Known about the structure:
The protein has one domain (6-105): Arc Repressor Mutant, subunit A (Orthogonal Bundle), CATH 1.10.10. It has a five-stranded antiparallel β-sheet, with helices on one face. A three-stranded antiparallel β-sheet has the order 5-7-6. Helices cover 33% and strands 26% of the residues. By secondary structure, it is α+β, with helices and mostly antiparallel strands. The radius of gyration is 13 Å and the shape is globular. It has three helices and eight strands; from the N terminus they run ββββαβααβββ. The longest helix has 15 residues, at 64-78. Strand 6 and strand 7 form a beta hairpin.
Amino acid sequence: xxxxxxxxxxxxxxDATHPELRRRGVTIPLQPRPLRLLLLLIENRERVVxxxxxxxxxxxxxxxxxxxxxLRDIRRALDDSASAPRWIRTRPKIGYRFIGEVVVLA
Length: 106
């Protein structure tokens, strides 16, 4: 499903092979959809991912509330804030963008 890659940003590492988020080597529990949404945002970090695209990617009837809930879970896991984002910026009515610096590990 995903390429064999890992991404490092700040003190976090996201393994795309068997999606898992770690902070300083310790696994952070995150449900599969928020975890996969984080991966989608990181893999497309060079641009804003539209809400429409997230809905298509989700693959089912999804509400704005479902997306908001997944982003809230991601932000909580990353100690991020919507009002002062370090990792994910929301573009109101447009979409979302991962804004942190990412190092791709083989």
